Every structure is written in structure tokens, then in C-alpha cells.
């Protein structure tokens, strides 16, 4: 299934059931910004992204997947990002967060959790 990041207006994506326009453009822009931030700071983008998630006050735990033992080992080495870098990454992803909203259910609309 596809969540609210992917468009489901009309018949263009039968894997998404939410009926909304999606946020592909915002995700693409955010990824470009995050890559530039990580490159400028000589950070691995995946490691920086995990660090960003783990340093959010409202996130007590994160479930992180891996496709290999090596990825599990890499994911376990969480770096500490500066407050300035955390803010820069948050700003880079704000358009995505604004577009998909704060609903817990990213697969259906209206949100079953409201």
C-alpha cells in the first residue's frame, strides 16, 4: 500500500486508498535539501536522518528496519546532531509535514485516529 506521500487522485495510483493528491514534489524537494545539508556537513544521509528522528522530543522510540546485518550495525551507531543542524533539517522537511498533516493514519482519509 501507498501512504499519503503518494498521489491517489483519480485512477493514477491504485495502491493508495486515501484519495488525496500526495506530496511527491515536496518529498523530492526535501530530499534535495537534505542531501545538500548532509553533503555540506560531510554526513551520511541515512545516519543523519536516523539521528534527526531519534533527537525529536516527541519521538520516544523509532522502529528501524534493515536489509542486512551490516545495515543493522550502521543503524546502531547514532550520531548526535547540533541544535542548528536539527533545525536546518526540520526546516528542509517542513513542506512535507505541512502537506501530509499530523494524522496518525497515513493510509486513509479521513483519519481513523481523529
Detailed description of the structure:
By secondary structure, this protein is an all-alpha fold. The protein contains five helices and no strands. Helix 1 packs antiparallel against helix 4. The longest helix is centred in the N-terminal third of the chain and has 17 residues. The radius of gyration is 16 Å and the shape is globular. The protein starts with 23 loop residues before the first helix and ends in a 14-residue tail after the last helix.
Strand and helix layout:
Layout: H1 24-40, H2 45-54, H3 69-75, H4 83-92, H5 94-100
Helix pairs in contact: 1-4
Order of helices and strands: HHHHH
Q: Determine the strand fraction and express it as a percent band.
A: under 5%
By secondary-structure content and strand pairing, the structural class works out as mainly alpha
Strand element count: 0
Major beta sheet, specifics? none
Helix content: 40-55%
Global geometry:
globular
Keywords:
mainly alpha, 5 helices, 114 residues, 45% helix
Task: Give a short summary of the structure.
The chain has 114 residues and is mostly helical. It contains 5 helices and no strands.
